[in-house]
TrEMBL record:
Keywords: Kinase, Transferase. GO terms for molecular function: kinase activity. This is Histidine kinase. The keyword Kinase applies.
Amino acid sequence: MTVLLRSAANPGGSTTEQILKTVRADVIERMQGYAADPRPEIARILAHNIRILGLLTEAIELAEANTKILSSSE
């Protein structure tokens, strides 16, 4: 049984894209707290998080495409 994702056994669950969008929003919020920090370690973290955000956006687009495919086959 899925814990987070919507399924036959968990009809109240979230879609993949909803979960990924929530994670993306959390990363953006956390990054705002780092923005003024001049430490080089934080600069690396920000660079990593920017890359993560791009990957999350790509994953969201794929999940939305999956949802569209499933919706059209019903």
